Description:
With 95 residues, the chain is mainly α. It has a domain at 2-15 and 25-49. 47% of the residues lie in helices and 0% in strands. It has 4 helices and no strands. Helix 1 packs antiparallel against helix 2 (27-49). It starts with a helix and ends in a 15-residue tail after the last helix.
Amino acid sequence: MVVLAFILCILVKLVLLSHNSNKPLAGVRKFLVNLLFNIFWRLIAIFTFFTWHRHVKLSRNEVDYTAYLGTNEEIPIDDSLGGTQQPTTSTAVRQ
C-alpha cells in the first residue's frame, strides 16, 4: 500500500509540474489528477481490503428520508436550510 501511495505521489507531482499553486486545477490536469486518484484508491482497496468500491447517484425523487426527518410540510425546506422563519414546534432548553 505504501508503494502504491508513493507511486501516486510521484505521478501527481509529474502532472502538476509547472502549475501555479495559486490557481485552481482545470482542464486536462484536473482530469488527470482525478483519474489517478480514482485508479489508485481502487487499487489500494483491492490489495488491502480485497474489495471493490462503487457508488450510485440517486436523484431526490429516489430517496425518502421522511421516516427520519419528517415531511417538508412539517418544516419547510427553506426553514431547514437557515431561512428566516422559526420552526413551528418549540423545544425546551435545559438550564
